[in-house]
Design brief:
mainly alpha; 3-stranded antiparallel beta sheet; two-stranded antiparallel ribbon; 5 strands; 3% strand; binds 2-acetamido-2-deoxy-beta-D-glucopyranose
Length: 524
């Protein structure tokens, strides 16, 4: 009896415990599903903010303000003022906006457009995460400062102004942009002197920005799409390298080919317009010919193919069911190539690239060495999030499987190196932490605001042994040598010159790391 008397009691408690357990699990599952569902609907339900990356993002974003040309409105950079106000005026154009390229006062259209495309991409994927740390408006404003310029630089369908300033004259002076007295000649490409890569990159910038502004300013967004379509037609119809049409660009931003930019522009135009002819262009029409399938390369302002591979993988991950079979087969080739690239980035994969420093930083070129690790980290975090969002559990590298988290860890390793976890214990992001470069190769940063300098005598500020009087906050400098040393010296432009595209790239990867979140399956 005793046994029987206790039995119902034991049974009762067992049921209670089980029911509670089931309820707890069900609640957890429901929360996850709800979170996933609202994610898909575009509501942001991101994970906790990683303060270190939030701080770094807020700092990196400020370099766009450091680089602005034109009439500044509410500038947060106290030592910057209006400059370049009459750029383009002789030709009847307003080319006052846009951003200076690096430590000088040149506006180079090819890298400036690449900056805009990468910044658009970051906003499209991680706008909600930027918003979570109050950086979204800043990112949109910075992008628009460039696209306003690009629109004005495209006054008729087959003419694009690709440069403001003469680099030889400019580099003979050491002046703040605010006190520039030089001639500011314009350079264009047109039907007799075409520039396919610069026209196509500008089309990519405008098509991606069209998506960013779609819900914010529809008229502006539509205008960007129209310019992008015209520029792509110009680039594709009048094929020729701008390095041939305008040989003087070779010493600054030489292009090694334009097939990558044609694919890049057409991919963005497909996403911006949903026009299937652009999808056909990148797949059955030109994929085999221009795509370099199964031959991964390094992304840079010169080579957009890795960007194309990751962006078209996105289409394969999320939109493959709407794509016809022949096109889909080509998309899979892009994705396969992207996976080969991801496998080469993962440090312990069987196909890991040997292009690394001893502490694990991707290292490919001596000039601006941080371009490749930071750009690759951005692509890795994107790919990782495409895998997560699509429920793709594994990536196979010669038979070894890796999870999305491995790609994210790789991206984190590169970013942490940049932010100071390196043998020099130096943050390569100016303004972040206590120890960062003080002699950045940057005219405006190195000359006191109240100094009166002409063209030549300004060089005394290049020569000066004092640190820069104005902090170029947010500058991502060129970076370390392969032996992980860095010489903080103002005339060391190889290592110490920042650029606006470096900033767009670090902004991209930091936005992806600032909190954990799935990406939206479709752009706005
Ligand atoms: C600039 O700041 C002022 C004062 O805060 C504000 O009223 C104005 O709207 C701002 N202008 C722009 C373009 O942000
Ligand atoms: C076309 O571009 C070339 C190269 O920049 C330039 O020399 C030429 O003057 C331009 N043609 C016209 C009609 O402006
Ligand atoms: C520019 O690139 C082209 C094509 O790759 C090459 O032939 C040329 O030598 C390069 N020019 C310079 C100055 O490096
Ligand atoms: C800067 O230094 C160089 C070499 O050290 C010297 O030739 C030049 O005169 C200096 N320029 C100025 C403006 O001080
Ligand atoms: C590191 O590499 C640079 C560039 O190759 C070289 O100039 C420097 O002497 C090297 N430093 C050390 C400590 O090996
Ligand atoms: C700065 O470096 C350049 C080469 O990169 C050199 O021609 C120039 O003389 C250097 N200037 C000074 C002041 O050291």
């Amino acid at each position: 009896m005793v046994g029987e008397g206790r039995k119902p009691k034991g049974w009762f408690w067992w049921v209670v415990v089980t029911v509670i357990g089931v309820l707890v699990v069900a609640a957890a599952v429901l929360t996850i599903l709800k979170d996933f569902h609202s994610k898909l609907k575009g509501h942001s339900h991101h994970g906790p903010v990683v303060q270190k990356y939030a701080d770094a993002l807020g700092i990196a974003m400020q370099f766009f303000d450091v680089q602005k040309s034109g009439k500044l409105v509410n500038s947060s950079i106290s030592w910057r003022g209006d400059s370049g106000l009459t750029d383009g005026s002789k030709e009847g154009l307003d080319l006052s906006k846009g951003m200076y390229d690096a430590g000088d006062a040149m506006k180079f259209g090819f890298p400036m457009a690449f900056t805009a495309t990468m910044l658009s991409w970051a906003i499209l994927e991680y706008g909600d995460q930027m918003d979570a740390v109050k950086q979204l408006g800043h990112a949109q404003d910075s992008l628009r400062w460039i696209t306003d310029y690009l629109i004005n630089a495209h006054p008729s369908p087959n003419v694009l102004y690709i440069q403001v300033g003469d680099p030889d004259l400019d580099h003979k002076c050491w002046q703040r942009p605010e006190s520039m007295t030089l001639q500011r000649p314009l350079t264009q490409v047109n039907t007799s002197f075409p520039g396919t890569e610069v026209a196509a990159e500008t089309a990519a910038a405008m098509a991606s920005a069209c998506l960013v502004f779609k819900k914010i300013d529809f008229a502006y967004s539509s205008s960007l799409l129209m310019h992008a379509q015209q520029l792509f037609a110009f680039a594709d119809t009048y094929q020729g390298s701008y390095s041939v049409a305008v040989p003087s660009v070779q010493r600054f931003y030489n292009s090694s080919g334009y097939g990558d930019e044609l694919l890049w522009a057409a991919s963005w135009l497909y996403l911006a317009s949903a026009d299937r002819s652009y999808l056909r262009y990148v797949t059955i029409d030109h994929g085999q010919e221009l795509g370099n399938w199964r031959r991964p390369s390094w992304i840079s302002w010169n080579d957009k193919l890795p960007g194309v591979q990751v962006l078209l993988s996105r289409v394969d991950f999320f939109g493959a069911s709407e794509v016809p079979t022949a096109e889909n087969l080509a998309l899979q080739m892009y994705r396969e190539t992207a996976e080969m690239m991801m496998c080469s980035l993962l440090p312990d994969s069987p196909t890991a690239t040997p292009s690394r420093t001893e502490s694990g930083l991707i290292w490919v070129t001596e000039w601006n060495s941080l371009l490749h690790p930071v750009a690759s980290a951005f692509l890795a975090v994107l790919y990782s999030d495409y895998m997560l969002t699509s429920g793709t559990e594994a990536l196979f590298c010669s038979g070894t499987s890796y999870r999305p988290g491995h790609l994210r860890d790789f991206a984190i390793s590169q970013v942490d190196y940049v932010l100071g976890e390196n043998p020099m214990k130096l943050s390569y992001l100016v303004g972040f932490g206590e120890n960062y470069p003080r002699y950045v190769h940057h005219r405006g940063s190195s000359i006191p605001v109240d100094a009166t300098t002409g063209c030549q005598d300004g060089f005394k500020w290049l020569n000066s042994s004092a640190p820069n009087p104005n902090v170029a906050v947010g500058a991502l400098v060129g970076g370390p040598f392969q032996n992980e040393t860095y010489s903080d010296s103002r005339n060391n432009s190889m290592q110490g010159e920042p650029s606006t595209y470096n900033s767009a790239l670090i902004v991209g990867v930091l936005s992806g790391l600032v909190t954990t979140s799935l990406v939206a399956k479709s752009f706005p």
